[in-house]
Amino acid sequence: LKELQWLGLALLDPEKAEHFIGIAGPDGCGKSCMAFLRPTIPGWKVEVLGDEVAWIRVGSDGRLYASTPLNGFFLHISGFDPTKECGNEFLSRNAIFTNVGYTSLGYPCWSSCDMRCNPGEVTYDWRGKSCNNNNERTIEHPQASVAVRCINCPTMHAQWESSRGVPLSAIIFCTRRRTGVPLISEAFTWQHGVFRASTIRTDALNSRKGENQVEPIFDPMGMARFLGYSFGDYLKHWLSLDKPNNKLPKLFFINLFQNGSDNEYLWPGYGDNIRIFEWIIRRISSPTVDSVINTPIGFVPMQESMNLKDLCVKWKELIATPKEFWMNEMIAVRKIFDSILGTNLPKEICEEFNGMERRFSSA
């Protein structure tokens, strides 16, 4: 039995085929907000299996089955827009807010909630200071959050409470990097995917300074805060699943938060994230149909293989894998592994380190 911090989704495609996908990664990477995805491509339906924790086991058929032991969601509220993400109903009851602002009538508020105050109503920030006459004041703390029961979510899947779990078609690991990490990539193999997931670093808000200063945080698989035993042994458990009779899900990696030269996001996100899932599902069901680019970090989609209808995006920037960025990443992560794992680093991870460095050196 493996444990993973996740969001579980059930996607029904236009042909009415259902696909179960797990999304894992550090906090603040857009994972939980995908529970409220409103597809911009007709014919798709998205439902939720669970949030925060997944228990994963190998079924008798060799597939990985995931179930959730928790009855709730935990979201970082900063940037969450209820009007775009079904949140008005979701947050109307059974919700506990932390470090958000509030009104004189006791209602929670934060910068992106588009709150309309009644005449004479006073708004306070998370420290209790009035911010009605100070447009520069940030209402919520950078790590403001909300915990909500699953019953609030209007799109829970019928099997979300199943103890048997659902068979996973793919596991997606997400991160939040302003540059360097492409929008979407696919691991070459299971071992390569475990390696990629074990090296995740993310740009996170510095909660100690309380300002929007971005620092890369090492958070492998989004599990840094939850591991109760050796990280090396945890990786060995994941690697041990790669057996001839097991039918393992494909591993993918996404980064929804790349910035362009104007400091604006390159990818629109929200309902357009269904375009990423559409490509992933095609790679699962018909991997030879779509054209891909073989990069040193994995496969990335060619522009013509992505459904970009009605979008205007800078595709080359979205899928770029700059050599200098990744060589620096490998140096930084090797130092971290040396300090926390030493000789307990699995040999398979060492092999993948060397392989990626060779591919970039010859690129």
Automatic annotation (TrEMBL):
SUPFAM superfamilies: PEP carboxykinase-like
Entries under Pfam families matching the protein: PEPCK_GTP
Coiled coil location: none
Domain Phosphoenolpyruvate carboxykinase C-terminal P-loop: 9-358
GO molecular-function terms, A-Z: GTP binding; manganese ion binding; phosphoenolpyruvate carboxykinase (GTP) activity
An example Gene Ontology biological process: propionate catabolic process
InterPro entries per record: PEP_carboxykinase_C (IPR013035), PEP_carboxykinase_GTP (IPR008209), PEP_carboxykinase_GTP_C (IPR035077)
One GO CC annotation: cytosol
Gene3D superfamilies the record matches: 3.90.228.20
Protein name per the record: PEPCK_GTP domain-containing protein
Origin species: Ascaris lumbricoides
